[in-house]
Design a protein that fits this description.
Blueprint: E1 2-6, H1 14-24, E2 30-34, H2 40-52, H3 56-77, H4 81-104, H5 110-132, E3 137-139, H6 156-167, E4 175-179, E5 182-184, E6 190-192, H7 197-208, E7 213-218, E8 239-241, H8 242-250, H9 261-266, E9 271-275, E10 284-287, E11 295-311, H10 320-330, E12 338-340, E13 344-349, H11 355-362, E14 366-381, H12 392-397, E15 405-407, E16 414-420, H13 424-435
Parallel strand pairs: 1-2, 1-7, 2-4, 3-4, 7-9, 8-10
Antiparallel strand pairs: 5-6, 9-10, 11-13, 11-14, 12-13, 14-16, 15-16
Helix pairs in contact: 1-3, 2-3, 2-5, 3-4, 4-5
Length: 441
């Protein structure tokens, strides 16, 4: 079986839903993971915030507007009154959940319940559309099998056992549909895998089912060798290793959720990135082993904050770094880059939710200064330590860019550089010109 994930743009309109049906219905059994229709999650986030802040009337107006949009989808999607009626009743139920939260009050889990409605709506509409078209489809609720543990990690044993029970009910189905993103937590409450989590859902399902392949369908032909939003002349990378793809995803390539690499890599399931708008293109294949190249791609991660920590002592005392990192561990805040000297260290963060608390605790140990609006440029390629002459073009390219930190040697496949965000676009273009001259990857 293949597992296919389609994002919000792939089900973003009546036309796209019809095209998706034609794309996947070829007689082969598939499990299809769907996101909410494009724009829905953002709209539901806005509704939840209005309810949370006591703006019930404004929330009610936005709920009505969103319901009207979906009523128009039903009018355009269904020809048969029976299926249109089922779709309308489903909308009654889902918007009834949201309206109930609006009128009864906001609880700790309310936002996640509201957000889950987006995926519940898109998958039900698609299932009904397939059935109206004569396709043997089945809809299995992700909330019946997808669960995270107390640490927010997938409960693989529970997922495998529960998913297989659900699949046993679908022996006649050609297309099996489920929701991406949403899950239950260890307490059984509605939860989610964070934004972009539909990729993660597909990878988890593919791993536990030992799928033949996981396909991530989006609106671009695969990973590019630079950011096409800022750089002209980029090209698609046809093959990446899991580690290379994970580096690019983590350091700014928006095409795939970084966590989605983990299950597929652990179970050695190939992942293919494809374009719903250009289905004939072969996309990018991600697998365990790939060919070594000097440079494969460049990515940029914004909204980075630097902490420059200086020890009060001439030499860093034994255990000093351990105590600093215990602060980050306590606040569950990950570090991207680190550089050390005799008396100081510099650390970069992309999550500043607990920055003030972190700074307060570190100031008990040392002096600390911060700088925001920074960008990490990550170059993925062949940086194995046994190679000689690695990366000269990178530093030649960035000769006119003030470089603030460098991370080299920690990974055999990447080199990371910290710069001010105001220099990002220029740095990306310079790197492209130097390391991918007239490239055709």
């Amino acid at each position: 079986m293949k597992v296919l994930k389609f994002g919000g743009t792939s089900v973003g309109s009546v036309q796209r839903i019809r095209e998706l049906k034609n794309l996947i219905c070829d007689g082969e059994m598939k499990l299809v993971v769907l996101s909410a229709m494009a724009g829905t999650t953002n709209a539901l986030v806005g509704v939840a915030e209005l309810i949370r802040t006591g703006q019930a009337e404004d929330a009610g107006n936005q709920i009505s507007d969103l319901r009207a949009q979906y009523d128009r989808v039903i009018d355009g999607l269904f020809d048969n009154d029976y299926f249109a009626k089922q779709a309308s009743e489903m909308l009654d139920a889902q918007f009834g959940i949201i309206e109930g939260i609006r009128t009864k009050g906001f609880a700790d889990t309310s936002e996640k319940v509201i957000l889950s409605c987006g995926e519940m709506i898109s998958t039900t509409l698609f299932d009904l559309h397939l059935r109206e078209s004569g396709v043997k489809s089945a809809l299995i609720p992700a909330l019946n099998f997808m669960r995270i543990d107390k640490d927010g990690e997938p409960d693989y044993y529970y997922i495998k056992e529960s998913l297989n029970r659900e699949l046993q009910k679908c022996t006649e189905a050609e297309i099996i549909i489920t929701q991406g993103f949403i899950c239950r937590n260890a307490a059984g409450e509605v939860d989610n895998l964070k934004r972009g989590g539909s990729d993660y859902t597909a990878s988890i399902i593919g791993a536990v089912l030992k799928a033949e392949e996981i396909q991530i369908w989006t609106d671009i032909n695969g990973f590019h060798n630079n950011d096409p939003r800022h750089v002209e002349g980029t090209s698609v990378i046809r093959e990446l290793s899991f580690d290379e793809a994970a580096e690019l995803a983590y350091f700014g390539a928006k095409i795939m959720h970084p966590s989605a690499m983990i299950p597929a890599r652990s179970y050695n399931i190939p992942v293919v990135i494809r374009n719903t708008m250009d289905p004939e293109d072969e996309g990018t294949v991600i697998k365990t082993i790939t060919r070594h190249e000097d440079y494969k791609a460049v990515a940029a991660k914004d909204d980075i904050t630097v902490l420059r920590i200086s020890s009060d002592r001439r030499l860093m005392s034994f255990g000093f770094m351990r105590r600093v990192f215990e602060v980050f561990d306590f606040y569950r805040t990950s570090v991207d880059m680190i550089a050390t000297s005799e008396e100081s260290m510099s650390i970069t963060l992309d999550n500043t939710d607990h920055l003030e608390e972190i700074l307060a605790d570190i100031r008990k140990l040392a002096k600390v200064e911060t700088e925001s609006n920074q960008t990490i440029i990550c170059v993925v390629g062949d940086f194995r330590p046994e190679r000689t002459g690695s990366a000269p073009e990178i530093f030649e390219a960035l000769n006119s860019i003030p470089v603030k930190m460098i991370s080299y040697g920690a990974s055999p496949i990447s080199l990371s550089i910290l710069i001010d965000s105001s220099h990002k676009v220029k740095a990306l273009q310079l790197l492209h010109n130097y390391i991918f001259p007239a490239s055709d990857v």
